[in-house]
Write a structure and sequence with these properties.
Elements (H helix, E strand, L loop, with lengths): L18 H11 L3 E2 L11 H11 L13 H15 L9 E4 L2 H12 L5 E6 L5 H6 L4 E6 L9 H7 L4 E7 L11 H11 L5 E5 L19 H4 L2 E6 H4 L8 E4 L2 H12 L7 H10 L3 H5 L1 H15 L6 E2 L7 E5 L8 H12 L1 E2 L1 E2 L12 E5 L4 H12 L2
Parallel strand pairs: 1-11, 3-4, 3-5, 5-6, 6-7
Antiparallel strand pairs: 2-8, 7-8, 9-10, 10-13, 12-13
Helix pairs in contact: 2-11, 3-11, 4-10, 13-15
This protein binds pyridoxal-5'-phosphate.
Length: 385
């Protein structure tokens, strides 16, 4: 293959391969237990697979409607209304998308112009900043406090200026496993009142909130719902991360702009999977029972580490458990994560990679969306360190 001889001024000069790919690859190379990337090592429900097979065989294999099949949009709108009390119009305010990452990216593409500022709370999921920068936007970072990962609202207020176009929030939060409280969202609602700032609310872990707490969606707060793209992922909810299926909710004015971009990008999302998900969503227990399912895994993993030198930080939601290793090593988290994978056979994610200017916290993120056998093996190795 001849090489390209022209000049490339990269639009994303700082972007390399994501840490998830790097760590999963390293885990595979060394035969390590992979507690790094956030995906289950168990399959989805057989009922869901059967529905998919049925719909693939039902002659529904041509382009579905651009916004998503009506039955799935209806199911999503009904769920949002019953859980968060906000009625989204099925025709204009719900769009089915190929994954939450795409939904977030499309919302940024639709809203952010060159020179616009977008506030990101760090540590931040790694797709946000590149999504902003590729559209000429400028990420403005506010760091969550450590070790409780609370939101410093005074710093958020200081970060808001005349060029602020958007704030991206993520609750339950990857990688910190913290969640927003109702008070947090009221603070945000108050700060944004009277501005044109829009919110992208990454709520892919909406059904994984622990210890009896309710998920605080921006959709519950009228002053936020009116300016928010709420993004969720079927991948996280139904153990099908490889399907890349999600949805976006937004008031019609925002959704109209979103769809202008969506229409000329992917245009439509996989049809048979949408029909299958619409049927499967009738079983409310499948998503309402998810928090208890993952809480058991969290508790299993944490109790298997009892007596070890790893210090668990609170995991209030998501399927991640952060472990502080300040009693074990002075190494940087990136070095330790690689060494643990190579030498001990257990892979994790260093939390510093979610920061633009990483603080020297000694924290690794472990994914507990794994079978108990895998978690037990991982915890046994860690306990010996
Ligand atoms: C916070 C957050 N947002 C978005 C995503 C991506 O979701 P999807 O696979 O539906 O694009 C993930 C996946 O790990 C995530 O943790």
């Amino acid at each position: 293959m001849p090489h390209y001889a022209g000049t490339i001024v990269s639009k994303l000069p700082r972007v390399g391969t994501t840490i998830f790919t790097v760590m999963s690859r390293l885990a595979a190379e060394h035969g390590a237990i992979n507690l790094s990337q956030g995906f289950p090592d168990f399959d989805c429900a057989p009922e869901l697979r059967a529905l998919v097979t049925r719909y693939f065989n039902a002659g529904l294999n041509q382009y579905p409607p651009m916004a998503g099949v009506p039955v799935l949009r209806e199911a999503v709108a009904e769920k949002a209304e019953s859980l968060y009390g906000t009625a989204y119009d099925v025709e204009h305010e719900v769009t089915i998308v190929p994954g939450a990452t795409y939904g977030i990216y499309t919302a940024i593409a639709a809203m952010v112009r060159p020179g616009d500022e977008v506030i990101l709370l760090e540590p931040a999921y790694d797709s946000y900043a590149p999504g902003v920068e590729v559209h000429g936007g400028i990420p403005v970072y506010v760091q969550l406090t450590y070790p409780d990962y609370a939101i410093p609202w005074d710093a958020v207020q200081r970060a808001i200026g005349p060029r602020t176009r958007m704030i991206i929030v993520n609750t339950p939060n990857n990688p910190t496993a913290s969640v927003f409280s109702a008070e947090d969202l009221r603070m945000l609602e108050g700060l944004l009142a009277g501005t044109d700032i829009v919110v992208v609310a990454d709520e892919v872990y909406e059904h994984i909130v622990f210890d009896g707490h309710a998920h605080q969606s921006v959709a519950r707060f009228p002053g936020l719902a009116e300016r928010s793209f709420v993004v969720s992922s079927f991948g996280k909810t139904y153990h099908v991360t490889g399907w890349k299926m999600g949805y976006v909710l937004a008031p019609r004015e925002l959704m109209a702009e979103f769809r202008k971009v969506h229409q000329f990008n992917v245009f439509v999302t996989n049809g048979p999977l949408q029909y299958a998900l619409a049927d499967y969503m009738k079983d409310r227990d499948a998503y309402l029972g998810l928090a208890a399912f993952y809480q058991r895994k969290r508790d299993f993993f944490v109790s298997a580490l009892e007596g070890s030198r790893w210090r668990p930080l609170p995991s209030r939601g998501t399927f991640f458990q952060n472990l502080c290793y300040d009693a074990i090593s002075d190494e940087r988290d990136t070095d330790l994560a690689v060494r643990l994978t190579r030498e001990k056979g257990v892979a994790s994610i260093p939390v510093s990679v979610f920061y633009r200017e990483p603080p020297q916290h000694k924290v690794l993120r472990f994914c507990f969306a794994k079978s108990e056998a895998t978690l037990a093996k991982g915890a046994e190795i860690l306990s010996r360190i």
